[in-house]
Prior knowledge:
The chain is an alpha+beta fold. It is built from 22 helices and 23 strands.
Amino acid sequence: xxxxxxxxxxxxxxxxxxxxxxxxxxxxxxxxxxxxxxxxxxxxxxxxxxxxxxxxxxxxxxxxxxxxxxxxxxxxxxxxxxxxxxxxxxxxxxxxxxxxxxxxxxxxxxxxxxxxxxxxxxxxxxxxxxxxxxxxxxxxxxxxxxxxxxxxxxxxxxxxxxxxxxxxxxxxxxxxxxxxxxxxxxxxxxxxxxxxxxxxxxxxxxxxxxxxxxxxxxxxxxxxxxxxxxxxxxxxxxxxxxxxxxxxxxxxxxxxxxxxxxxxxxxxxxxxxxxxxxxxxxxxxxxxxxxxxxxxxxxxxxxxxxxxxxxxxxxxxxxxxxxxxxxxxxxxxxxxxxxxxxxxxxxxxxxxxxxxxxxxxxxxxxxxxxxxxxxxxxxxxxxxxxxxxxxxxxxxxxxxxxxxxxxxxxxxxxxxxxxxxxxxxxxxxxxxxxxxxxxxxxxxxxxxxxxxxxxxxxxxxxxxxxxxxxxxxxxxxxxxxxxxxxxxxxxxxxxxxxxxxxxxxxxxxxxxxxxxxxxxxxxxxxxxxxxxxxxxxxxxxxxxxxxxxxxxxxxxxxxxxxxxxxxxxxxxxxxxxxxxxxxxxxxxxxxxxxxxxxxxxxxxxxxxxxxxxxxxxxxxxxxxxxxxxxxxxxxxxxxxxxxxxxxxxxxxxxxxxxxxxxxxxxxxxxxxxxxxxxxxxxxxxxxxxxxxxxxxxxxxxxxxxxxxxxxxxxxxxxxxxxxxxxxxxxxx
Length: 732
């Protein structure tokens, strides 16, 4: 930013200060434009840079400086992890003022320093308590900043800023050479730390306006919405503007947010818990000063814990049924946690996270688990999960298993829905599988054929790969949620509400039986019909639809499950070994990793070199050679004995089969979950296919490796009953 522009920006925001101003006064949140919430009237485009707060953030009005007129803390002294936290007195901004972004950054620092999940939930909830008490309209941008998201997944708003662009912006904003930035980033392994140190060593004549959480969030959204040939330079200008205004650790976390990874070990489950704790302990809507600062103060430690867990479960269940912070948070602020179920319900147009099945190793296990319950067997189709939403106005939307909007990918499905639904259907949500279909041979095609289809903005006339939609569940019908209904009832309503059309819309092929021989024959037939195997589902008892859960009410039975591990794994490629012999000139083996949600790191789980054809190895080499790193990412966890020839960026997910799992002194997968010092590795891993439909963060988790696969394997080997640790786990 040029000196004249900096001066104008500072003058407009009322923050023209010499660098010799007292440090405490300079960094008090109430001292700058972001502390005073009257938006400035810009004289130039750049002057409005810090005044915008985005359409979703209502402007605040100036109020008292703090509790009883006390000046708020210096943001650098802000500590949301302190014991006996006071949401007003311990805040670093006053009532009616914008939440300083530095308060969010200081919270991230505390969370990054501590690995204890419960303590981090408490720390984050303290920040949220202050926001609710002092600046409630800032709570939504603060939540999204903690999740490192710009909105609901189905809106598809993503930053997509590459590391090279970020380095360029850091260099330009701090006056350093790009080569210096690259070298330091290589050394530290974290561009965020480089940005922080570069900014802290920079001196400017005038102090730029201080960043607010809402202002930063608004700028991130603005960057994401930019398109066109000139958009990259505009994005860099905005990023430079943010960096120039950064103080202390702000540059670290803005850089990480722009790069897509906060790397502080904060999972969405923890954020939901923190939100529930915050609005329960410091209820919103009290006015100022709030009378109740800690609603759980009079409770015993045990009663307080139970109460907060109950409140958290209400919020989490609500979020399962209506996964939109944009809708839930305003209702939460107005009505509180306990009223959420009355105001937030499943809504067509807002995608749900799907129910998933547990793997099994054989028909005998199925019969044992369901010995007292009626069940059905359905074909398990090898396609892409498709959640079909029919709105009352006739609009049809299609969402992926990750809640991404796939409507423009399947115009052929959209056009056929009005033909296959009966007139009685006004609105509904279907769970289905989109499968590649050969209209000439009238049969299913492999999943790999489906992946060749264009991903977005597909024109119906250009479609070369036809799809057939196989519907297997209905979750909502004409204003009524059906997720609490037994599967037998849901299946009946599905069949009564739609009509089949060959090659376009069919119901999942199924058979109700409890005969081992019949299940075995049906499994064989499913393979002959180009399916993966069977899904086995309870019909009456414990037969509800468990949103966002991997449940024992649904079991997966594949042909290759009958030998070896009862499920495949989706693993991330993080390294490659140079080929020898016939594989010279390409990669001959690879280092794979699972994903740990708590630590946000990739943990090595095996080397793999089987299951590849020469053609597939050539394709892998052609793709992966463009993603080689000079050194491993700081969020890779591995042992020096497994160091590959080339480290790779975590960009691709592979589906892998193995004989079994074992405790490993070398690999780091699920370390600490089964053995305190050792991880888990795969024995005889075999490559099956690339999972283009999955992001690296959606790979098999360390928890699934430990609890869903390793412990299940041990229990089967030991002929033991399933332990509580293997109970249903949250999908998200």
